[in-house]
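4.2 Preliminary Data

To establish feasibility before requesting continued support, the project team ran the inverse folding procedure on a target of 201 residues. The structure was first converted into the token representation described in Section 3, and no sequence information of any kind was made available to the design step. The complete token record follows.
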């Protein structure tokens, strides 16, 4: 994948060394427990797993060349993660009332809809615009893989401020800056979509 800004490079996670995954997902408390499994599992499934089993599931995907996310790096230093994959892989989405309420009538089995579900940027690397770089890369990745629609589930911080660490699904302002349109909302949770014709910034 091409460079996106300065010397920051974003690549599918199966193409980077495993220590890069550890440096991002393993060093942030919430992500250490998740390993980008939260949206892929129902509540019952998630409760039945451990950190080790969730990491094992991620490793199995990476071994198969099936990346559920992208990693940003700068000169070999891992900087951040964005979770992006076809929406049907995220079993929690159609079971999340706020999203279902906001999304309206939609086919949750449509493989052409890709979801951007999370951003993980360790604290030392925040404040340098990495979420924008990761979002651009996720858009390009989804389009290249055949997505006809890209969807996300950010929070509207103007309506309900949240701590930075609780904003791993992104902010409404971030997605609006990249051309996403609001579909609906439930409280501060917003569903946004963009067509595959969207051009990254």
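Position-by-position output of the design step:
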């Amino acid at each position: 994948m091409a460079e996106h800004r300065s010397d920051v490079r974003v690549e599918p996670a199966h193409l980077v060394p495993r220590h890069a995954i550890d440096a991002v997902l393993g060093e942030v408390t919430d992500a250490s427990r998740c390993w980008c499994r939260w949206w892929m599992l129902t509540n019952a499934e998630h409760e039945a797993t451990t950190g080790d089993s969730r990491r094992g599931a991620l490793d199995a995907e990476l071994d198969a060349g099936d990346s559920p996310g992208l990693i940003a790096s700068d000169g070999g230093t891992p900087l951040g993660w964005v979770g992006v994959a076809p929406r049907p892989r995220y079993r929690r989405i159609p079971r999340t009332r706020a999203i279902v309420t906001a999304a309206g009538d939609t086919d949750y089995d449509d493989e052409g809809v890709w979801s951007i579900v999370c951003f993980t940027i360790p604290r030392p690397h925040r404040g340098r615009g990495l979420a924008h770089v990761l979002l651009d890369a996720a858009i390009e990745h989804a389009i290249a893989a055949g997505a006809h629609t890209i969807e996300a589930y950010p929070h509207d911080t103007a309506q309900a401020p949240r701590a930075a660490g609780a904003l791993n699904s992104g902010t409404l302002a971030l997605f609006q800056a990249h051309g996403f349109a609001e579909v609906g909302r439930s409280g501060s949770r917003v569903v946004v979509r963009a067509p595959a014709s969207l051009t990254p910034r």
